[in-house]
Amino acid sequence: MALHRPMTPAVQFEILDLRHFSANSLRPVLDQEVRLWNERLRWSYRASADLLLQYLDSRVLPGFVAMEDGRVSGYVFCVYEENKAVIGDAFAIPSRHGAQSATEIELRLLEHVIDLLINSPGIDRIESQLLLHPHGAHASAFERVGFEIFPRLFMERDLTPSFAGLVADENLSFASRPLPAGFELRGWHDEDFTPAGRLISACYEGHLDSRINDQYRSVAGSLRFLHNVVRFPGCGTFDPLASKTIVKTGSKELAGILLCSRVRSDVAHITQICVDRAHRGLGLGTLLLKACASELRKRRCCSLTLTVTDGNIEAVSLYKTQRFHTKHMFDAMVWNEKKGS
Fold it and tell me: For the chain, what is the total number of helices (H) and then of strands (E)?
């Protein structure tokens, strides 16, 4: 007698407009995403999730929702910035009946939002960095319409002493490498905001990362980037004590900056580090990293993280010498409309 397996119930799966959904309907999915951010990156995503829920209740955020048998199983959203659009996030949970994986659902959501943006009047550039998701996981959705994909590294340094005397050794090492003559190392000041915008724009002129994030291409764009880092909770809570600057002793002109945020009570993240082109090769980047780590360790921070483009060989090498190791690789994606096509 033949045995028959019970048939899997038919899955009713739809992609719908995000603006039709309230915050409460997406809260269970966001709660799972918050847990994954903490598990994978040791990053508290709660503040970002709560901010997203506020936007959802306003019903103005463009994007899509995946629905399975009346249950929200994933979402994607985007924002418009003049002629550019940014895909902010895509996240899904596996199909209830195992018919589709979370990645397969995310791919469908991404295909919908990419098609929306490419066909939006006036949009000639699209950017996205899906920090949570592994390198290559969603490449097919972007490659099919001509996006460039840039692998990026999520690197981490353990600030917990691994053996007795490590802290003392590092403090001695820091003290034994004084600043070159004519420079001063200090913390972040509010008046550094505008000079830092000018420094970032100058440092990234022609740089690989300015292809990934076009905010780096102008002072105005760099100031918008700084506003998001310093005054907005999306990249954690800005930590002015751990953020460091190097200035010229006489003119007080910025020669280098390191910006740091708390992404969890015991974890910090470097959101920006750059050194004026005229003063590179003097070890200023190393001193900024050491000063930041030393300050964080005083306040019992156990981990320091950063992101860097894999193709930025010089920066990756510097971070490795400072005991950062690659914990995760993800992708940055960029699309530019081909003029005259």
Answer: 10, 13
Q: Which amino acid is at 206?
A: G
The tokens for 145 are 């319409």
Per-residue pLDDT, 173: 47
Mean pLDDT of 296-306: 96
Rounded to two decimals, what is the model's pTM? 0.91
Give the fold, CATH level 3, of 13-146.
Aminopeptidase (3.40.630)
Report d(CA 266, CA 296) in Å as an integer: 9
Distance CA 193, CA 213 (A): 19
**Cβ pair 249, 238 in contact under 8 A:** no
Pick the CATH number of 154-328 from 1.20.1250.20, 3.40.50.300, 3.40.630.30, 3.40.50.1010: 3.40.630.30
CA nearest to 247, candidates 288, 294, 217, 298: 288
How far apart are the C-alpha atoms of 318 and 267, rounded to whole Å?
21
* Cβ pair 61, 35 in contact under 8 A: no
